[in-house]
Amino acid sequence: MPVITAILPQKRRKGRFSIFIDNEFFLGLDEEVLYSAKLKEGQTVDPEKMKELVIQEEYSRAKQNVLHLLSRRLYSCHEIRSKLIQKGYETYIVDKLIEDFLSRKYLNDRQFAESWVENRIAHHPRGLRVLQYELLRKGIERELITEILQSYRNMEDQISLAEKALNKKKNYSNEKDLRNRKRKIYQYLAQKGFSPDVIQETVHHLLGKLNKMDSED
Q1: Domain containing 35: what range?
Q2: Cα–chain-centroid distance for residue 84?
Q3: pLDDT tens digits for 177-207?
């Protein structure tokens, strides 16, 4: 039977250990995996058990990877799956990790989608069409998207959001020609995903204010 001849802490990676079997490097293990497996030098090892350790180690590395990502911002399940697959993790490892993180509420697509919409509205105003497209690309289910965006469908809220988006594009207000003003506003708001009805009401409201300012000048 193979024998563990050395268990050495890795110099460059704190909390990880190198496992040597029959004086040859076998694999590196996270400290948590090492202690849960109760490995020690001089111990004979079952090849099947070592295969299980390889799986545990891969899961542990994937877990640390995801925890690092989540420490920076929220992610959808689809985003996490894509990132892990791109890094070469096996599908069964990815599936298990996402299932575990969902049960622990580390991942939550509703929470992610609500946070995404709130952030967009606060800092990068978009129309509902663009918000829906962005969330679909993040892997959020269409029914959940519809439910979350429902509270933003009020016309007054949409007009307010459209005006907020326009505040980031000032050059339309410098345009003296009324036709060009309208064209620039229409084009910009359409690109941002606002509906024709919202754009029309926004244009009517804004041009009314601009014309009033022009007459006062």
Answers
A1: 1-45
A2: 13
A3: 778 778 888 888 999 999 999 999 888 877 6
